[in-house]
C-alpha cells in the first residue's frame, strides 16, 4: 500500500468521523460521574440527530436510550464507535467493531503507550486490528471529539463549545477542558474540537489536512508536544497556509521543558530550532503562549484579517494611549497616518484640547457620541487597517453606553478589525459582555490586544511570502560520494577523515582547500611540494574533534623541512595527549588565503530531516551564536533569506568601505550542501568550519569539512 | 603427521586471540585441529585445591571443545612460589610431561596450535623456552608483535634471532595493533623487508576496538550493576563509552560519532537517554541508583537496547569501565565469532601450513 493511498483512506474516514449518522458508545453507563455517562449525555445535549447506541453488557436503558449488550447486537450500521471501557477489554472490542463494519474509532480509554512497554504493544495491536478492517483510530487516551456543525459532541468534556470558525486540535486533553470552559466565557466559537491523545494512528497532520478541507473551519489552532512525521506535517501545512491561518503552540522550548516533553511522550522530540524553522518554512505561525494562541483566535473569530499593519488608537486617556503606541511600534505594526478628511471630521466634533492625530485622545470627558465619531472616522479611513479602542473609567465615562456605540460602529464597518481594551475591574464587567456579545474582542490591557493584531498581520505577511519555488539541481558526482561512504562503512567508522570529507564536498562542486592524507613524513613532504608552500597540517583521527586544542594542527609551514618536523611533532603531541586515539596519518592542506570566516553546517533532525545552519564561523561559533537555520531541500530564496538573517549577512554586504563579499557563491555553497544531504540520508552531521568568503567574484573556499555518517 | 605451529609473543599481544582464530580457520577448511599450551601460570579463578589451572587453557578447552583434561591442555603451571620451583622438578621430567600431554592432545590431529608462555624466553632457565619447545616438537613458529609504531621492528628481529639460534627455520610474522596510518608502510616496505630477512609475512591486524571490547556482562560485573532491561543481551560488545551530561541539543551530534557504544548518564536525564537510544547505542548505564522513567524504559524495550543501573556515580562509573578489556570467555559466543572473523581474515597461511 502506498502512502498516498493510505492517506486518502484516512481523510475519507475523518469525514465520517466528523459527520456520523450513527454512534455507538462502548462502555456507556447510566451512572452519573462515569465517563461512559458523560459521553452519552454530551451526545444528547449537543443535539446530535443521528442514532446513538449505548453499549453495555448489562443492557437496559441509559439516559432514555435502549442499551445493547454488544456492537454485534445493533441491527443498523455504526459509523463511529466511542470506546470508554478499561484498557484490558479494548482489543477484542476493536475486532468486534471491525467485523461490524465500523468506520472510525474514538478511543477515550487510557492505559496504553503512556504506561509503558506493555501498553505500547497493546496500542500497536489496536492499530494493526483497525487497519485490517480499514478503520481509523483517534486516540487512545483522549478526551474525544466535537463538531459543532454536525452538531455532535462525543467527549467527556464539561459542556459543548459554541459554534464558530476555529478548528482546534490538541495533544493534551486536560488543556482542552480548560480552553473549552474559558471559550464559553469569552464567546470564542469552534468548528471542530479534537483531542489527539496518544496519536496511535491519526495524528496532527491528518486533522490539519481535514481542517484545511473543511468549509466550516477558517482558522486552525494546534497544541502539540511533538509531530509524528515532520515532512508530512510540513507538506500538509504548506498547502493550507495560503488559504487559512494555522497557529501552533509547541511546548518544550526550554531545556527543562524539552526534557519534560520527552519523558511525557516517550519520544525524542526534534530540536526546538527545527520546529521553529519548519513552521516558518511551511507558513505556520508559532505562538509563544497559550494566551497568545487564544487571543489571536478570539480576534480572528470576530474579525477579518487586517489588510496591512497600520493601526489607529482611540482613547480617553493619554497614558494608556502612549503605552499602546509603544506596543504597536514594538510589535512590528505601525501607527496609521490619518487622511485629512478623518482629521477634519474629528477636529470638528471633539473639544479643541483633544488630539486628533494618532493616537486619538478624546479626553477624559469623552462621551459615547465622541467615541462613535472617532471610531467611525478611523474605521472609514483607507489609511487605517485596524482600530484599537481604549477606555478607562473616569468620572464622566459611560462605560456601557460607550460599549454599545462601538458595537454599532462595528455593524456599520464589519470588515476592518476593531478591538476594545476596557481597562478596569468591576465597572467593566457588563460593558465587556456587551462587547463580546457584539462580536468585538475585548481585553483588560493593551499589550495583548496589540499582540493579537500583530500576530494576525504576521500571518498575512507569511502567507504572501510563500512562493512556489523549486530547489535548484546542480550537476554533481554522486558515484564518488557513494564510494567514499562505502569505504568508511567498511572501515567500521562513523566519522570521516578530513581528506574523505573534502572529496565529498568537491564531488558536489564545492571549492575546497586541497587536502591529502600523508602516512609518513616523506609522503607529507611530497604532497606539500605538489600543493605548493605554505601548507597546513592536521592530525587525521576520527577520535579527535578539536585538533588545535591538543597540538594536532600546524599552519604556515613553508618548507619541506618544516613539513617533516610538523609531521613528527603532531604525532608526538597526539601520542602525549590522546594516547588511545586511532591515528590514520596527517592531512596536508593547501593554505587558503584568509577571508570572512563562515560556518555552513547540517544536522539531521529526528523529525524534520536535514537542518542547515549558516553563520559566523571560526573557533568562536558557539560563543558568537550568530547563526540561522533552514530545513533542506532549500530554494534560492531560502538561501538568500538564511544569509540575510545573520549579522554576518550584513557584514558580507560590505561595511566601512569594504568590498561586498561573494554572496552568490555562498548561497550556491549552501544550496549544494542542501542537495548533498538530501541525496545522502547517510550523512547525519556535516560541518564546514571555517569556509572563507572572498570579495564578489572570487568565491568561497571550504577549509575544514567534517562529516559523520549514520547507521545502516 | 601432525603439523605443529607455535604462536609466540610477549604478554598482551593477543596470542590467545590468534590461536583461537587460527584453530577456527583451519577447522573451517576441514582439518582436525588441537590446542596446546605447554607452559602457563596459575589462575586463582579457575584452579581448585587439587589442581592448578591456566586461565587460557580452561577457556580454550571449553571454547574449542577439547577432549583432553585441562591439566593436560596446559601441563606445566608456574606458580612463582620460588625461583627454583621448576629447577627442582628438572628439565627432563618437565619435558616428559610436555611430550606426554602433547601426544594425548595431538593424537589424530592434522594440526596442533601451540601457544607459548607469557614471553618467548620464559623457562629458558630450564631449557624449555618457546624456541626450545618448538625445536623439540619440530614446529613452525608464528611470531606475534605489537606494532604501534615503526620502532617495533626490532622486536620482530629479536624474536627471529631467538628462534633461529635454536635451529628453527620456518618463522612467520603477524603484526598486531597496527595503526591504520602504517598500512601503506607495512604492505609496501615492511613486508618485503621481513621476507628479505628470512621471515614469512602472514598478516597484519589493525587497531580495532572490537577485539578488546568488553561485553555488557563484563561491565555488569565491574560495576556491580543491575539489569533493568535486556537481560538477554549480556554478550553485546561495547566499543566505547560516552558520558551523557551535555545539553540535549548537542547530545545527538556527539552520540552519532560512535557506534556500539554505552552511554553513561543519570536516570532522570530522559532527554539524554532517548537521544542515546536513537543513535546505535548498545547499552544505557544509569548511575547514582536512579532508574529510567517508564517511557524511556518502554522505548528501550521496543528497540531491544539493554539498560543497566549502578549505584556508582558517573565519574566512578567512567573510571571503572575505562580500562576494562574484554577477554574471550566461553559464554560469549559473539565475541568469539568476531575474533575468529577479524583475525581469521587478517591471516594468510598460504605456503606456511604444509
Order of helices and strands of chain B: EHEEHHEHHEHEHEHEHEEHEHEHEHH
Q: What is the count of DSSP helices of chain A, taking H or I runs of 4+ residues? A: 24
What is the CATH H-level superfamily of the largest domain in chain A? Succinyl-CoA synthetase domains
Average pLDDT reading of chain A: 92
Instruction: Determine the CATH topology of the largest domain in chain A.
Output: Rossmann fold
| Separation of the first and last Cα atoms of chain A | 24 Å
Name of the CATH architecture of the largest domain in chain B: 3-Layer(aba) Sandwich
Count of domains of chain A? 4
What class would the helix/strand composition of chain A place it in? alpha/beta
Biggest sheet descriptor of chain B: 6 strands, parallel
Shape of chain A: flat
Give the helix proportion of chain B (percent range).
25-40%
Amino acid at each position: 500500500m502506498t502512502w498516498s493511498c493510505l492517506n486518502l483512506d484516512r481523510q475519507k474516514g475523518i469525514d465520517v468521523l466528523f459527520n456520523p449518522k450513527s454512534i455507538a458508545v462502548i462502555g456507556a453507563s447510566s451512572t452519573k460521574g462515569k465517563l461512559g455517562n458523560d459521553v452519552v449525555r454530551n451526545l444528547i445535549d449537543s443535539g446530535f440527530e443521528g442514532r446513538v447506541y449505548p453499549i453495555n453488557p448489562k443492557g437496559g436503558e441509559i439516559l432514555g436510550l435502549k442499551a445493547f449488550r454488544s456492537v454485534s447486537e445493533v441491527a443498523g450500521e455504526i459509523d463511529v464507535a466511542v470506546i470508554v471501557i478499561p484498557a484490558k477489554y479494548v482489543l477484542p472490542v476493536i475486532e468486534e467493531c471491525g467485523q461490524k463494519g465500523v468506520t472510525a474509532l474514538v478511543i477515550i480509554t487510557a492505559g496504553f503507550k503512556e504506561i509503558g512497554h506493555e501498553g505500547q504493544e497493546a496500542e500497536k495491536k489496536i492499530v494493526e486490528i483497525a487497519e485490517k478492517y480499514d478503520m481509523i483510530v483517534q486516540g487512545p487516551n483522549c478526551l474525544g471529539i466535537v463538531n459543532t456543525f454536525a452538531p455532535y459532541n462525543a467527549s467527556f468534556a464539561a459542556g459543548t463549545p459554541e459554534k464558530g470558525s476555529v478548528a482546534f486540535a490538541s495533544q493534551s486533553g486536560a488543556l482542552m477542558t480548560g480552553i473549552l470552559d474559558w471559550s464559553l466565557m469569552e464567546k470564542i466559537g469552534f468548528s471542530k474540537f479534537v483531542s489527539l491523545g496518544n496519536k496511535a494512528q491519526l495524528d496532527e497532520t491528518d486533522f490539519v489536512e481535514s481542517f484545511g478541507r473543511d468549509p466550516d473551519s477558517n482558522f486552525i489552532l494546534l497544541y502539540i508536544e511533538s509531530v509524528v512525521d515532520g515532512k508530512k506535517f510540513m507538506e500538509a501545512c504548506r498547502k493550507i497556509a495560503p488559504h487559512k491561518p494555522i497557529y501552533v503552540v509547541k511546548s518544550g522550548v526550554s531545556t527543562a521543558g524539552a526534557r519534560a516533553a520527552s519523558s511525557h511522550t516517550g519520544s525524542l522530540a526534534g530540536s526546538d530550532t527545527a520546529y521553529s524553522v519548519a513552521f516558518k518554512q511551511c507558513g505556520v505561525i508559532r505562538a509563544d503562549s497559550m494566551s497568545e494562541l487564544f487571543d489571536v483566535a478570539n480576534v480572528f473569530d470576530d474579525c477579518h484579517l487586517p489588510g496591512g499593519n497600520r493601526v489607529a488608537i482611540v482613547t480617553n486617556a493619554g497614558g494608556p494611549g502612549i503605552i499602546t503606541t509603544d506596543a504597536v511600534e514594538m510589535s512590528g505594526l505601525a501607527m496609521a497616518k490619518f487622511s485629512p478628511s478623518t482629521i477634519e471630521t474629528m477636529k470638528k466634533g471633539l473639544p479643541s484640547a483633544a488630539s486628533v492625530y494618532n493616537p486619538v485622545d478624546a479626553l477624559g470627558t469623552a462621551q459615547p457620541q465622541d467615541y462613535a465619531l472617532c471610531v467611525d472616522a478611523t474605521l472609514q479611513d483607507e489609511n487605517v487597517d485596524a482600530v484599537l479602542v481604549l477606555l478607562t473609567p473616569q468620572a464622566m465615562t459611560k462605560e456601557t453606553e460607550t460599549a454599545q456605540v462601538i458595537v454599532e460602529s462595528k455593524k456599520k464597518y464589519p470588515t476592518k478589525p476593531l478591538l476594545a481594551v476596557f481597562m478596569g475591574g468591576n465597572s467593566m464587567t457588563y460593558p465587556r459582555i456587551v462587547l463580546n456579545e457584539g462580536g468585538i474582542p475585548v481585553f483588560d490591557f493593551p499589550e495583548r490586544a496589540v499582540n493579537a493584531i500583530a500576530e494576525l498581520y504576521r500571518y498575512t505577511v507569511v502567507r504572501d511570502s510563500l512562493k512556489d519555488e523549486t530547489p535548484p539541481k546542480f550537476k554533481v558526482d554522486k558515484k564518488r560520494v557513494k564510494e567514499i561512504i562505502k569505504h568508511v562503512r567498511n572501515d567500521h567508522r562513523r566519522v570521516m577523515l578530513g581528506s574523505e570529507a573534502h572529496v565529498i564536498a568537491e564531488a558536489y562542486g564545492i571549492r575546497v582547500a586541497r587536502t591529502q592524507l600523508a602516512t609518513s613524513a616523506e609522503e607529507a613532504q611530497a604532497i606539500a611540494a605538489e600543493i605548493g608552500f605554505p601548507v597546513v597540517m592536521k592530525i587525521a583521527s576520527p577520535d579527535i574533534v578539536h585538533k588545535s586544542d591538543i597540538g594536532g594542527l600546524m599552519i604556515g609551514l613553508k618548507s619541506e623541512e618544516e613539513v617533516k618536523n610538523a609531521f613528527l611533532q603532531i604525532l608526538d603531541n597526539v601520542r602525549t595527549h590522546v594516547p588511545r586515539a586511532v591515528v590514520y596519518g596527517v592531512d596536508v592542506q593547501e593554505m587558503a588565503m584568509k577571508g570572512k570566516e563562515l560556518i555552513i553546517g547540517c544536522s539531521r533532525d529526528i523529525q524534520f530531516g536535514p537542518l542547515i545552519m549558516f553563520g559566523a564561523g571560526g573557533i568562536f561559533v558557539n560563543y558568537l551564536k550568530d547563526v540561522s537555520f533552514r530545513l533542506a531541500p532549500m530554494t534560492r530564496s531560502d538561501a538568500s533569506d538564511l544569509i540575510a538573517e545573520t549579522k554576518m549577512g550584513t557584514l558580507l554586504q560590505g561595511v566601512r568601505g569594504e568590498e561586498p563579499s561573494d554572496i552568490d557563491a555562498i548561497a550556491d555553497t549552501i544550496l549544494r550542501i542542501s542537495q548533498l544531504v538530501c541525496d545522502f540520508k547517510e550523512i547525519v552531521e556535516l560541518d564546514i568550519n571555517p569556509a572563507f568568503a572572498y570579495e564578489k567574484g572570487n568565491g568561497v573556499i571550504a577549509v575544514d569539512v567534517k562529516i559523520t555518517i549514520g547507521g545502516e | 603427521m601432525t603439523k605443529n605451529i607455535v604462536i609466540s609473543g610477549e604478554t598482551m599481544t593477543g596470542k590467545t586471540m590468534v590461536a583461537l582464530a587460527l584453530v577456527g580457520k583451519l577447522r573451517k577448511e576441514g582439518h582436525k585441529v588441537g590446542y596446546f599450551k605447554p607452559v602457563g601460570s596459575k589462575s586463582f579463578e579457575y584452579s581448585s585445591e587439587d589442581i592448578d589451572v591456566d586461565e587460557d587453557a580452561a577457556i580454550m578447552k571449553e571454547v574449542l571443545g577439547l577432549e583432553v583434561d585441562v591439566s593436560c591442555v596446559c601441563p606445566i603451571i608456574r606458580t612463582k612460589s620460588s625461583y627454583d620451583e621448576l629447577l627442582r622438578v628438572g628439565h627432563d621430567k618437565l619435558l616428559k610431561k610436555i611430550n606426554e600431554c602433547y601426544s594425548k592432545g595431538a593424537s589424530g590431529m592434522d594440526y596442533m596450535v601451540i601457544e607459548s608462555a607469557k614471553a618467548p624466553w620464559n623457562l629458558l632457565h630450564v631449557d624449555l623456552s618457546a624456541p626450545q619447545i618448538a625445536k623439540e616438537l619440530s614446529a613452525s613458529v608464528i611470531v606475534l608483535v605489537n606494532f604501534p609504531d615503526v620502532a617495533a621492528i626490532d622486536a620482530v628481529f629479536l624474536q627471529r634471532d631467538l628462534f633461529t639460534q635454536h635451529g628453527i627455520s620456518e618463522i612467520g610474522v603477524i603484526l598486531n595493533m597496527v595503526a591504520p596510518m602504517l598500512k601503506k608502510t607495512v604492505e609496501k616496505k615492511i613486508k618485503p623487508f621481513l621476507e628479505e630477512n628470512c621471515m614469512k609475512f602472514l598478516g597484519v591486524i589493525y587497531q580495532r576496538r572490537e577485539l578488546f571490547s568488553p561485553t555488557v556482562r563484563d561491565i555488569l560485573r565491574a560495576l556491580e550493576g543491575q539489569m533493568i532491561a535486556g537481560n538477554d543481551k549480556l554478550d553485546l560488545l561495547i566499543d566505547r563509552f560516552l558520558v551523557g551530561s551535555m545539553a540535549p541539543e548537542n547530545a545527538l551530534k556527539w552520540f552519532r560519532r560512535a557506534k556500539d557504544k554505552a552511554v553513561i548518564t543519570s536516570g532522570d536525564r530522559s532527554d539524554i537517554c532517548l537521544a542515546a537510544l536513537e543513535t546505535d547505542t548498545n547499552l544505557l548505564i544509569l548511575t547514582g541508583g536512579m532508574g529510567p522513567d517508564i517511557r524511556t524504559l518502554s522505548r528501550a524495550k521496543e528497540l531491544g537496547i539493554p539498560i543497566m543501573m549502578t549505584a556508582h556515580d558517573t565519574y566512578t562509573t567512567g573510571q571503572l569501565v575505562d580500562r576494562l578489556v574484554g577477554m574471550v570467555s566461553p559464554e560469549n559466543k559473539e565475541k568469539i565469532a568476531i575474533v575468529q572473523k577479524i583475525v581469521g581474515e587478517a591471516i594468510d597461511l598460504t605456503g606456511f601450513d604444509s
